[in-house]
Amino acid sequence: MSVDIRMHGDAADDELRSLYEWLLNEPEIRHHADPKLVAKKPESGEMGAAFDVISLVTTSAIGLPATIEVIRGWHATRRRKPQMTIERGDLKVTFTDTDPETIIKILNSTNGT
Question: Class of 2-107 per CATH?
Fold first, then answer.
């Protein structure tokens, strides 16, 4: 199952990098998922250094709930809660502070779980 994670706001790039590092250092994620930091396509004249999304491929049904729980843990450490969007296929969930079980239910509400 593939999931994309985006950040919104002024510090989106820094927050995305922070979450990515958090995911890489989490044994549960290393066991059940493969996170990749993906750069957005540069506009004309830009150098293209900014990152747009964390693309995460989970390797088991356990992977999504574990991933959401790890993201929630990271989110709880942020002084200013960044707005995030988690995408799975055509489904997008945007939140600032939401119970992880609610996010899992929404993401699992379509086919392909």
Answer: alpha beta
